[in-house]
Structure formats: structure tokens, C-alpha cells
Design a protein that fits this description.
eight-stranded parallel beta sheet, alpha/beta, 17 strands, nine-stranded mixed beta sheet, binds pyridoxal-5'-phosphate
Length: 375
């Protein structure tokens, strides 16, 4: 794959990092990795972090070294990049239906432990055929829609029927349930967020018990994200947590409220867009070189770090404006700044490199190996 020139080299001072670039504060990243690993262990739940957040095998291997049982991927291409980077156990926490993709997935199952989700009997048949052609057995989880209104069969009887279909497929093994309530993650107020997580867990529990009565025990029940992981871990229903964003955090997650009404600050911000003031025309704003091609704005604008009262506004392809009317200091031409992304995962996907810094030195430069639309 042709790659862009890396924005930094190991040992460089942070000031020399070319812009726009993604910075990872390694102290904060390590804090987050250790915090979640410890919390999952304390709750007696396995951790299988979602790699769609970082798309970077070096980070996945750090998660696994700290006790994660494997990782989640959303796409076959991500799973391939992770296995290529040394990960041995991957759950594709998503539906795969295209025959070419199923064939690649079955090929991967010959090299690593691969599990995948399903919400359709016809797709299960296609997966079974691909597994048969590659002489592998693939583990399958029935995805149920636990309130996220995305993929998944309805809880209860439909899940039982599909589980039975998987169990009777010779090249597949029924493993359990996947129930990720994506919409609950970003509900701002703690009581409502926890209520949505509780409702999801009770739908999962009801389905689990129905399957058990039908002779199909669930070895694995996986779900949970950065917004609800604590309730999900405490529910006693999930055997695995699949949180992703906790490693980096973003302005959108920060805006979730805790039960006490404070910022959601259980995890530290470790991901930043490094950007440079490229024009300071002496008006109400300065212009930085991080626009829509450097930062995702789907969940809100990035937030300049350490510059209270200075909002990032009006992004265009290659430009962003910092409204400096309330700034406590002048921002000079050529100055380099950090922005906290609004939404970490799609921001990472815009970049080819992650520049890992400790203090003001570059310690590593990692490729975003699984970057792309995700085929
Ligand atoms: C995105 C995603 C996650 C991780 O959620 P975060 O909010 O990033 O922690 C887990 N599971 C699935 C299926 C997802 O799509």
C-alpha cells in the first residue's frame, strides 16, 4: 500500500512534528489501557476491545498484553490487518454477507481464531459454505438488537431460531450472543444512559435463558461500549466487554455526564490532532491547517486544547478557524496547537500515522494499518 510520508521520526521534539498529524499521549493511553484492563478483571468480565477505534496492531497487542482475550473488528479488512500484525483471536462484531468477503474471512480462520456475528439464516448458509470450502469451523454469535436500532434479530424467539440454524450448520459453531447498544453510549444523562443499558441487559438475559431452555447454552455474551461498560460489567449478563473509544476518548464522550453531573473523565484524553496556525489575518479568527480532511466533525467540532473560550468553527477541506475573540492570549502565525477530536474513530481513519509522544518527545510512529473504508 502506498503511504503518505510519516509526519515525525522517533526521537523528534514534538514541535518538529509536521502538521496536521495525530498525536497520542502515551502516558494517557497507558493509563486508559491499564484502567479498563483492571476494571474488567475486577468485575470478572473478559475484555475484548474494539479495534475499529485505533486500526493499529501495535495498540491491539498492548491491549492483549494487559489481559484482553482478543479484539473486535468491524470489517474483514480490519481483521486481516490485525491478524497480519500478530493478533491471534478476532471477533468480527458485525454482519458479513458478501461471498468474496466470506471467503476471505474463512481463509483468515485457518490462521487465527475467528468468530463472526449473524442476523440472517441465508447469510449463515453462505458463511457455512465458505467455511466448508476452506475446511475450517467458524464460531458464530447471534446478534440481537438490544435497542440500538442497527443490525441484529429481535431478542427472544428470532434469536432462538437463528441459533438453532447455526448449531445445525456443519462448518459453524454456535458461540452465543452479541448485543451492542450503540445508541446508549452517548446518552448524556447518567440515569437515562444506565436505563438504556439496563433495558438491553434484560433483553439479553431473557434471550440467554430462552436459548438455555432450548438446549443452546451461550458460552459468550458480548457487548458494551465506553459509555455503558461499567453497568454492562456489573449486570452479570455479559461475559465480554467490547469498548473501544476508552483508549483515546473524544469531546463527545467527555460531554456525557456522570451520576454526579460532572464531565465523563474516567479515562484521559490521549488522542489529539496536531495543527499549525497557517494564517493570522488580524481578524476575529486565526486559521489552522486541520480541516475536514484531518478531523471528523460528525459528532461535533474538535476542541482546542488548553485554550478556553476559543472555539474551532467553520471547517472546510484544509482549513479550520479558531475564533479568538475571547482568547486570553494572541495566537501567532506558525504556532502549533492540539485539538481534541469530536469523534475519535472516524478521525483516526483520516490519518495514515499515529505519532506516539511521551512528554515532548516522539517515542514511536505507528501505521494506521487497517485504515480505509473497510472492505
Ligand atoms: C463501536 C463499537 C464498539 C465500541 O464502542 P465505543 O463507544 O467506541 O467504546 C463496540 N461494539 C460494536 C459492535 C461497535 O460498533
Amino acid at each position: 500500500m502506498t503511504r503518505e510520508r510519516p509526519p515525525a521520526a522517533v526521537g523528534m521534539a514534538i514541535e518538529e512534528v509536521d502538521t496536521p498529524a495525530l498525536l497520542i499521549d502515551l502516558d494517557a493511553l497507558e493509563y486508559n489501557l491499564t484502567r479498563m484492563a483492571g476494571a474488567a478483571a475486577a468485575a470478572g468480565v473478559r475484555l475484548r476491545p474494539h479495534a475499529k477505534t485505533h486500526k493499529c496492531p501495535e495498540i491491539a497487542l498492548r491491549q492483549i498484553a494487559l489481559g484482553a482475550v482478543g479484539i473486535c473488528c468491524q470489517k474483514v479488512s480490519e481483521a486481516e490487518a490485525m491478524v497480519g500484525g500478530g493478533v491471534r483471536d478476532v471477533l468480527v462484531s458485525n454482519e458479513i454477507v458478501d461471498p468474496h468477503k466470506l471467503s476471505r474471512l474463512a481463509g483468515l480462520a485457518a490462521r487465527a481464531t475467528v468468530n463472526v456475528c449473524a442476523d440472517d439464516a441465508g447469510a449463515v448458509d453462505a458463511l457455512n459454505a465458505a467455511a466448508g470450502e476452506h475446511s475450517v469451523v467458524i464460531g458464530v454469535l447471534v446478534e440481537i438488537d438490544a435497542g440500538g436500532d442497527r443490525c441484529g434479530v429481535d431478542p427472544g424467539e428470532p434469536a432462538l431460531r437463528l441459533a438453532g440454524h447455526i448449531a445445525s450448520s456443519p462448518h459453524l459453531r454456535f458461540r452465543g450472543l452479541q448485543a451492542y447498544q450503540g445508541r446508549a453510549q452517548h446518552i448524556r444523562l447518567a440515569p437515562e444512559r444506565e436505563g438504556a443499558a439496563r433495558a438491553a441487559a434484560s433483553a439479553v438475559e431473557r434471550t440467554r435463558d430462552l436459548l438455555a431452555r432450548g438446549g443452546m447454552a451461550c458460552e459468550v455474551i458480548t457487548g458494551g461500549g465506553t459509555g455503558t461498560w461499567a453497568q454492562d460489567a456489573a449486570s452479570g449478563v455479559y461475559t465480554e466487554l467490547q469498548a473501544g473509544s476508552y483508549i483515546f476518548m473524544d469531546a463527545d464522550y467527555r460531554a456525557n455526564r456522570t451520576a454526579e453531573g460532572g464531565d465523563y473523565s474516567e479515562f484521559r484524553q490521549s488522542l489529539y490532532i496536531f495543527t499549525q496556525v497557517m494564517s493570522a489575518p488580524g481578524r476575529s479568527y486565526v486559521v489552522v491547517d486541520a480541516g475536514l480532511k484531518a478531523v471528523a466533525v460528525d459528532e461535533g467540532m474538535p476542541v482546542p486544547d488548553g485554550l478556553p473560550g476559543v472555539p474551532y468553527v467553520r471547517p472546510s477541506d484544509e482549513h479550520g478557524m479558531l475564533d479568538v475573540r475571547a482568547s486570553r492570549r494572541a495566537l501567532r502565525l506558525g504556532e502549533k496547537l492540539r485539538l481534541v477530536p469530536g469523534h475519535c474513530d472516524p478521525t483516526v481513519n483520516l490519518h495514515e500515522w499515529l505519532v506516539a509522544v511521551r512528554g515532548d518527545r516522539v517515542e514511536a510512529v505507528w501505521a494506521v494499518a487497517a485504515r480505509g473504508v473497510g472492505r
